[in-house]
Amino acid sequence: MIVQDYNQHVHTLAFQLPKAGKSCCGDSFFIKATDEYLICALADGLGSGERANESSAAISSLVEKNDDKDVEDLMKLCNEELKDKRGATVSILKVDFKTREFTYSSVGNIRFILCAPSGTYIYPLPILGYLSGKPQKYRTQTYTYEQGSKFIIHTDGLVLPGIKALLNKGESVEDLSRQLEEYTKTLNDDLTYIVGQLF
Question: Does 1 fall in a domain?
Answer without folding.
Answer: no
